[in-house]
Design brief:
InterPro entries: EgtD, EgtD_Methyltrsf_superfamily, MeTrfase_dom, MeTrfase_EgtD-like, SAM-dependent_MTases_sf. By secondary structure, the protein is α/β, with parallel strands linked by helices. The protein contains 10 helices and 12 strands. The N terminus is likely disordered.
């Protein structure tokens, strides 16, 4: 009997609570005409480690460009949001916080009164980050939060009366469909108030060949990152996705600025997720969309900010003008 709350999934109540939304998203995505899997489920322990490898790849310019910005312009960035009053520095999708640590060290040297709040959907990544910070920056006050961004921000707003400085780095903003970016920013601002600030990383439009190479590396690590999502579904729901029956494909549209990744079925096949009583039939060369990553012009960034009632304070770019970190104030 199907559960009313999750009508597409059988036996949903038999699953652990933390798996129920995952199950619903998987089944809903795979029953669409254009099949899709949410990229937010890439980041289990294995996926997080694979993404760390991606960030070290020669073709993956995004991390190097943003690291360059933080390394050489850290004092200007910090001066833009630092204040004498205590504040929370909230890092959405913190991961290993490699880039954020550059600013954290400078803030500690300034003896700034702040609390670092790393927020990530992956509990494994948060636990590893907390352990590393305890060794690297033992004097840093850390309050990690796991789970959905908005639920965690609501909790933080209830429990803290401090000013919020929100980091959303690595061009994670580009992982939303473009129309949803506007919705996300407006919703994010509901948890903020006058005096709060945002630092958002935007991957800028550039040579389309550079962009495509960043998402389809010759070493196959990005492909493995995508395949890991199928492996995770297999392990979580007793599935039989055969990874050898798929290939990774990535393409960039320079008009829309959208980089899209797919897993392509190379043959007719039937996949079963036993724990969900769910069967999926795939035709040869049918695609499952796994990720989008939008690239922006500075004019598009300004339009997004204006629609969310954000004021652009400062724009920081790397020497190649590949990437921008933009400081916004609320209201």
């Amino acid at each position: 009997m199907k559960n009313d709350l999750y009508p597409n999934v059988v036996n949903i109540t038999n699953l652990p609570f933390e798996q129920q939304q995952f199950a619903q998203d998987v089944v809903q995505g795979l029953t669409k005409k254009q099949k899709t899997l949410s990229s937010k489920y890439f980041y289990d322990a294995t996926g997080s480690k694979l993404f760390q490898k991606i960030m070290d790849l020669p073709d993956y310019y995004l991390t190097r460009a943003e690291t360059e910005i933080f390394t050489y312009q850290k004092e200007e960035i910090i001066s833009g949001f630092c204040s004498a009053q205590p504040f929370n520095l909230v890092d959405l999708g913190a991961g290993d916080a490699t880039k954020t640590k550059i600013l954290l060290r400078s803030l500690l040297q300034r003896q700034t009164n702040f609390t670092f709040v790393p927020l990530d959907i992956s509990l494994d990544a948060l636990q590893e980050l907390q352990s590393n910070l305890a060794l690297e920056l033992p004097q840093l006050p850390v309050v990690p939060l796991a789970g959905d961004y908005f639920k965690a921000l609501a909790q933080l707003k209830r429990e803290s009366g401090m000013r919020q400085v929100i980091f959303f780095l690595g061009s994670n903003i580009g992982n939303f469909p473009f129309a949803e970016i506007k919705i996300f920013l407006k919703k994010l601002c509901q948890f903020l108030q006058a005096g709060d600030q945002l630092v958002i990383g935007f991957d800028l439009k550039k040579d389309p060949r550079l962009i495509r190479q960043a998402y389809d590396d010759a070493e196959g690590i990005t492909a493995a990152f995508n395949f890991n999502l199928l492996r995770r579904i297999n392990e979580t729901f007793t599935g039989n996705f055969e990874l050898n029956n798929f290939q990774h494909f990535a393409e960039y549209n320079p008009i829309s600025g959208e980089m899209r990744s797919y897993l392509i079925s190379t043959q007719d096949q039937e996949v079963t997720l036993q724990d969900l009583d769910f069967t999926l039939n795939l035709q040869a060369w049918e695609a499952i969309h796994t990720e989008s990553s939008y690239k922006f012009s500075e004019a598009e960034i300004q339009v997004l900010a204006a629609e969310a009632d954000l004021k652009t304070q400062l724009i920081f770019t790397d020497k190649n003008h590949y990437f921008a970190d933009v400081l916004f104030s609320v209201g």
